Amino acid sequence: MTERQGGSDVGQNAVVAKRDGDRWRLFGQKFFCSNIGCEVALALARPEGAAPGTRGLALFLVRRDGPDGSRNRYRIDRLKDKLGTRAMATGEVTLEGAHAELVGAAERGFAQMTAMLNITRLHNAITAAGIMRRAVMLASAYAGQREAFGRKLEAHPLHREVLGQMAAEADGALYLTMRMAQLLGRIEVSAADAAELALFRVGIALAKLYTAKQAVAVASEAIECFGGQGYMEDTGLPRLLRDAQVLPIWEGTTSVLALDVLRVLSKGDALDALGAELERLHAPERGDVLDLARKVRLEGGDTGESMARRLAFSLARSWMGGLLGGAGVEVRPRDIGLPLR
Ligand SMILES: Cc1cc2nc3c(=O)[nH]c(=O)nc-3n(C[C@H](O)[C@H](O)[C@H](O)COP(=O)(O)OP(=O)(O)OC[C@H]3O[C@@H](n4cnc5c(N)ncnc54)[C@H](O)[C@@H]3O)c2cc1C
């Protein structure tokens, strides 16, 4: 998807698809291609003469090799020198008439990519929950060994408080993410009703944006829990933080997803579905956060947009608190929040 002129603003995409008999060829540059050594990739491109914006984007499958084993026509201009996720190469690519197969109807390219994004956003949240769990596990184990001021770290009330907040974030991320997995599962087997569809639309954006942000906060806190040792590469902790830092960026940045939440909530059914879910779970502070959602909706315009992140974080926190409470995990609402206090 991502080209130099825009990752969030995919409607600006400029890669062109040209007809070549009954086949297609792609021309132009893609600025971020992860897993660059892959055998097949999906790419958005604009067929010649198609409409501007996302409406004119079609989805194509690009194979690395032709049927005779020859390389397809694209060039890897360079590999990115990244902060993290270094085990997976990301490259910049120039498509030089690459052979491509149209996937689905040409005018449904972006819609099809959106369906894929729901899955990658869920994977992002799963990774965030996993990173947080690992950070909590390592910090807790260390606290049981390391002594300061004549006591194990875990015996210090303030350190226990820090570990408790980290664990609440990790638990909350897992429960919210698994709720999304449950909803997506029901959608995929056509068992979801209209309310569940609306709930997933808003929930997947909330789950992705909130867990990603918290993974960075929790990984950073874990480093601090190890003191100076946490800053050392050979502990593996710096890598945890570097890898976590990509989670809020790809698959939709925090602000872009918060605006998405706002857009979805502007349709009454999503807010009703979310309200019913929070009520069912007796979610903490549900009255206040739903009031805030109505206020932001009413406000609209620039003021509404500027409040989108605050609203999204409040909704996610309340939802997570409700899910944890319903599962019998005791959590104080103040334990969940950004940044870790
Ligand atoms: C390691 C890595 C691998 C990647 N792999 C892939 C890949 O395989 N395929 C792919 O397609 N992309 C990939 N990406 C690209 C990634 O999806 C984009 O970087 C991301 O979508 C953001 O787009 P951008 O970089 O153009 O930033 P921009 O869209 O320019 O955003 C810059 C900042 O502006 C903010 N912003 C943008 N619009 C608004 C708005 N309306 N209101 C408020 N704030 C706004 C954003 O939140 C962000 O903080 C990868 C990125 C990384 C880091």
The number of domains is: 2
Q: Give the cofactors and ligands.
A: flavin-adenine dinucleotide
CATH superfamily of the largest domain: Butyryl-CoA Dehydrogenase, subunit A, domain 3
Q: Roughly how many Å apart are the termini? A: 37 Å
Count, helices:
9
Provide a quick synopsis of the model.
The protein is α+β, with helices and mostly antiparallel strands and 341 residues long.
Description:
The structure is a single chain. This protein has helices at residues 109-143, 157-188, 194-225, 237-244, 254-265, 268-280, 286-299, 301-306, 308-326; strands at 16-20, 23-34, 40-47, 58-63, 74-79, 90-102, 147-148, 151-152. The chain is an alpha+beta fold and 341 residues long. The protein folds into two domains: 10-103, Butyryl-CoA Dehydrogenase, subunit A, domain 2 (Beta Barrel), CATH 2.40.110.20; 110-335, Butyryl-CoA Dehydrogenase, subunit A, domain 3, CATH 1.20.140.10. Strands 1-2-6-4-3 form a five-stranded mixed barrel. Strands 7-8 form a two-stranded antiparallel ribbon. The mean pLDDT is 94. The structure holds flavin-adenine dinucleotide.
Walk me through the topology.
Layout: E1 16-20, E2 23-34, E3 40-47, E4 58-63, E5 74-79, E6 90-102, H1 109-143, E7 147-148, E8 151-152, H2 157-188, H3 194-225, H4 237-244, H5 254-265, H6 268-280, H7 286-299, H8 301-306, H9 308-326
Parallel strand pairs: 1-3
Antiparallel strand pairs: 1-2, 2-6, 3-4, 4-6, 5-6, 7-8
